Amino acid sequence: MLLGIFAIAPRPAHAACDVAENASLDTAASILFKCSSTMALSGLPAGEKEFVANFSFPKTLPAVETPWRGIDFRVQPERYLRTLLAYGLKDNVSIDWRIEKGSQSWCHAPWFQDIRERIHGMTRERGSRLFELSEHQRSRDENWAIGFYNGVGCYGLGQVWGDPARPKTKAMVFPPNTFAIKLLFTTAPVSRVPYLTGSKIWNAAIGEGGSVQEMRLLQVDVAVKDPAAGALTGWVFGTFMYDAYAAGDDVWSKLVPVGLMWGNDPELTAKKYQEDGGTVQESWVNPTVAARFFSLPRHHLGLFGRLNGPVDNFKSACLACHARALDWGRGIPPEGPVFDEMNGLLPFTINPYDEQALRHYFKNRAPTEPFVAETQSLDYSLQLAGGIFNFRRWVDLKFSSQAAETRDVAPYIFEAEKSGNAEAALSRILPPTQDRSHVGPSPFSRDEP
Question: What is the pTM of this model?
Fold first, then answer.
């Protein structure tokens, strides 16, 4: 249902986001770093308030509860997964995920101000194609999401963003016990996806001109940096989906575990899966949930039975997608040969029958190993990678002469630039000066076509 469509004019962006034309790099970067959202909002529904981001990053590593430690995720994956969810819900449900009161217990990732809708701060995710969510889903639906980091994760973000104009990504790794939780909402109505009946509803300013639309909670993702997973990736990822038919008295108790993943099963190729009957060994996928999607065209949640959520691309998997998080050390134009080359180097999915590509895509990478050689890994954090990507594109657009001083890693040079002088080529591919041109397609947004 659309709300606010009769508003006379969109509400202006936060004045705190205004940057003077003659502002210095430091001043402009500081203003935009603190900015919650610049997107349009046409009519704020009664009882709602605008999203306010929390970038209160602790200066010292905080001590946090770690109730998942001591549970062997390989032996008790569902217990481990439910423990992660309970940890993420504990502080946030009662405040409806409004964490803006300066608490250092939870925070958001910065530099999404130009793509966050104005009511809950959600950003656009991959849309759901026909019949991906249900046999009744006969149109594409939008999915939007917002993520939250615990205090340890906030400390890790703060180590990067201590200087808003000069993020430090060199040798970046998150500390153990970093935890993140993400809520994913969909525009899909209950008439097409019946199991969304009774789900949590949020108003979101996602329509044309910032018009407001109701969205329903579909999926919740969790991730934790657990030393017990260090032999493979260092991380454990999990996901839940809302199910109206599940036992429970409220929305949160009706979140059904979809699965838990601590490795990518790089040897699970098409041949091994299709001809040899191979199955995942480094994930647990709830068989009841998997069976629900088996009859749909997608067949699996993730490639060859790997884990992904209902919203996610069934040709990928949770950890593999997040392993793509990296810093190019420079801005990437929103179109052209460099942009095309970047997408080839950092694909959302691969040809599942190309074994070399599959093994590379699903490789179990250490937190410090980048998906693309000669770039800087960002330790499985697509939120950090997306923010850095947006920042560097903005710098190249507005302060290109100062770009070198904003990075502590070498800029990646693409093959498309190597025909001539690298620095000259770098300047030739910068996006033309135009408003908001830095808000272009990102390989970290998961809003792939």
Answer: 0.92
- Separation of alpha carbons 49 and 40, rounded Å: 14
Residue 1, pLDDT score: 34
Cα distance between residue 306 and residue 281, in whole Å = 9
> Which residues of the chain register pLDDT less than 50?
1-9, 422, 429, 431-439, 449
In terms of C-beta density within 10 A (0-12 exposed, 13-18 middle, 19 or more buried), how is residue 54 classed?
buried
> What distance lies between CA 27 and its chain's CA centroid?
27
Could you tell me the sign of the dihedral formed by the alpha carbons of 393, 399, 401, 406, in that order? negative
pLDDT of 448: 52
Output the pLDDT for position 329: 98
Contact 375, 412 (CB under 8 A): yes
Please tell me the distance from the alpha carbon of residue 265 to that of residue 306, in angstroms, as a whole number: 8
* Cα(9)–Cα(13) distance, integer angstroms: 12
Residue pair 378/338 in contact by the 8 Å Cβ criterion: no
